[in-house]
Amino acid sequence: MRRQTITRDQVFEAADQIVDMGLNPTQNAIIRRVGGSFTTVGRYMEEWRRERRAANENPATVAPDQLLGAAKTFAEEIWGKALDLATARLSEDQRRLKAEQAVIDEDRVDMLNQVQDLEEVAATQEARITTLEQTIREAISETSVLQDKLARANERAGVAEARLADANRRIDELLESVVIANQRNAELLDALLPFRHRKPVGTNRRSHSK
Question: DSSP letter at 64?
Fold first, then answer.
């Protein structure tokens, strides 16, 4: 990341402000205020120190003690107000962080409860899946048994059908035999019918002799 380009006036102004607050204008302090690199800030700070030493060595530009005291007092007041403001902001930030932490803790508890509920639901679903798998295995086993029974029943039904066909064939043969026998009986009866009406030989002779 490239550092922000700063100017000579920015460095001078920042250094003067830090001095007015009663602090030492180090390069780190300048960089924290206006940015820049150590090389650029260091070069401008050397120039700022030369000009400041020259101003301090010139009697016409030396500030009176009263003015310096007032400036120091003003700087101390500014610094005190800055500290008070920083303390107030810190307290506000701490209060806000505590509130946010409370919300985070509450959300964390809710998330833990939801996770626990989900784990219970998952356990219940897993138990149901296990039961269903067992039921499916039993159903498959029963289906296999039923298929075996059905195959044997079909086999027995096939044998029964074959036997029934044989029995029907035998019945047909017997019926045909009965028909033939009936025809033969009818033929024999027809053949014997003339003999039933014929009188026996010798019957008339006995009657005449008497």
Answer: P
